[in-house]
Amino acid sequence: MPIRSLTPRHRERILAHLLALGERDRYLRFGQPATDAQIARYVDTLDFDRDEVFGIFNRKLVLVAMAHLAYTPTTTHRDQAAMAEFGVSVLPDQRGRRFGARLFDHATLHARNRGVETLFIHALSENTAMLRIVRQAGAEVVRDGAESEAWLKLPPETIGSRFDEVLGLHAAELDFQFKVQAHRVNSFLEAVSEIRHQLSDTASKAASE
């Protein structure tokens, strides 16, 4: 499942994804037991011009995993940011497929290609899955009681890293469009099947009368 860059038109899908998280998953993602209203405000304030949001869609176009790469620039332009913060969430039934790690690698690639020197991750100490991902990437993790902070120094961009980003974006767009078309075909076939069942039921009732 290729990783796709999300835009303002995906806000409803992002909201649906986050609202599908259980109480504990929300706690791990946001560091507090976020309510529906708080999540809605978070989604409404996403700045797609400043930050980057990535997602993984399944065949039914459900957003099953997403990451937010928040740039903390000294200016208003994200290409001049010195640091970026990473946050990720994965639906419970999609765990164990390394979606979190893949989104982390994807965000790291994008950040370094924008001149970011350090990737920052703030997580609860009990969020072992997230801390394991950043440790494996070589991040320095500092634990302070219930909370942990991690810093990952990023290498400078290269021609290869730029090519990898462009290639990934192209593959993700093709994959998404394919899923859109497949979803439309399936919806059409389901509608035809429903009509056939209704006609069959109507014919059966007429014959019995």
UniProtKB/TrEMBL annotation:
Top-level taxon: Bacteria
Occurrences of domain N-acetyltransferase (ranges): 1-157
Classification via CDD domains: NAT_SF
GO MF assignments: acyltransferase activity, transferring groups other than amino-acyl groups
Keywords: Transferase
Signal peptide span: none
Gene3D superfamilies: 3.40.630.30
Name used for this protein in its record: Histone acetyltransferase HPA2
Species annotation: Piscinibacter sakaiensis
